[in-house]
What does this fold into?
Amino acid sequence: MPNLVAPGFHSLVDSPQFFNAPEGKRDPQAELEATLRAFASEVEETPQRQNPQCGFIARRAWLDEALRFDRRRLPWRACRRFDEWHAALDAKHLTLVFASAYLNNPSSMYGHTLLRIDASDQNERTRLLAYTLNFYANTNETNGVIFALRALWGAYPGSFSILPYYIKVREYNDLENRDLWEYQLDFTQEEVERVVRHAWELQAAYFDYYFFDENCAYHLLRLLQVARPDMDLAGQFRWWAIPTDTVRAVVAYPGLVAKSVYRPANATVIESRLSRMPADDRALTRDLSQERVRPDDAKLRALPPQRAAAVLEAGYDYVNYRRATGKHDVDDPAAYARELLLARSRVDAPPQTPVIADAPTRPELGHGSSRVSLGAGRLGESDFAELRLRGAYHDLLDADPGYSPGAQIEFFNAAFRHYSEGRGEVESFVPIDIISLSPRDDFFGSISWKIAAGWWRQFANDGSRPLSTNVEGGAGLAWALPHGATLYGFVDSGLRVHPHLDDGYQVGAGATLGALVDPAPAWRLHGYVRGMSYFLGEHDRPAAVGLEQRLRLSRDVALRLDLARRREGGTSFNTGSLSLLLYF
It folds into this structure.
């Protein structure tokens, strides 16, 4: 690809063995000449090494198409290992798979994409037997914060791997409760073969993995471009590649997607089953799944067949869900699940599996992940104009379609203000701000959490309003209310550092209560009350009560109104702003 500053080109591959010339990464002409010389090698294939024609099978095919090699002067080498691998894949179609966001894993907190290789003898009932091509950061790091920070600077090698699809479905659908969307691509057989041959070359290669740009989403777009060299999907994602944005680009490309399939997570199916049940049946399902009620209980036999079938199916799914996540409510989950399945087989009723509409969360239907907002407001007695820029990707007030409800993931959010007195200043720069609201009920008992780190302004006791360094976090609970509303509460902690503060810092704890309500499909309200007590360093008891509103005008345009009463540094004041939000 072209260099950003200096003239010339460079390869994204960083492993030296991928190149035949020492300077091949940055000199295409030298690499071409070295490759042609290597193809004349008489090295025989062994389990430990390959002839260059076989190791670089995609290059051989491409060069042969362009140069029409004379087989008498350049004999074609037999490539047994590639042929066996190629036959095992039996690739007929390629399918782009998107897994929804998973906040508990930093590498997948805004989703993940992979490529499924569909064999010629497979159909929708046997797709789990297909293979997937997956790009990942090759590390054993388990600390999410360390991983995210190091991945920002390319500290990990990124590699392609090939795994059976059922392993990835189990990981995403069963263990991490992530919905999957499958987009079968309308490639010809020759286009599919180009990608497969290139995948063979990439198996032994590595790339420097970068969290925002050279990640799974970006490298899969580059791989798809091998199928059609004139198709530029990755060009628009030079600075960062968010998986939802790359899926949107694939879907928007004319004629590229042949069909799509939604594969809901186990938890999504269970929640859908439960939402259709009367309260009594839901309670019975809970008791049944924990073996407090047996499958032959009179309560269950008294239900009409379809309701009894629904309870047994939901109980069976929930037992398996708890088993897959390592949480056992019964002594022998496998045996009890079989018992529930046998009981269900004795009920004369059709399957009660719900039809789940995926439109609310289809990734291609969401707003753009970057955002600019223009607004004006008032802070105390001062008027201001404000410009906000967000690199990525979604907050609690943004419209839910295409994103995981209750998840806020914002990277590189900056605000600049110009006050009526004539001064301009940076209001905030927040590299990371994450909130996970996971509503609890009698089946799912998730913990909600949040963390934010960066620089933002807040009054100090000396009357100044410095741009201090802040780290805040909290854990709490959330509950779903009728009509899609959410109530939540957090126990908070915070650290603030700046020379204007007494002793240069503040450490405190507090709490936040809030609610999200949608009075209309395009209108969202967020009301909150929060208080903090800084008890180390500079003492202060800041507090705020506020109401935020968002009105969606179109997919990528919205209005936002924020109003609040605050107390900071011993001073109480009102603040508010009205902004136009533009997503791209």
About this structure: The chain has a mean pLDDT of 92. The CA atoms of residues 201 and 407 lie 38 Å apart. The first helix runs from residue 28 to 38. Residues 16-84 form one domain.
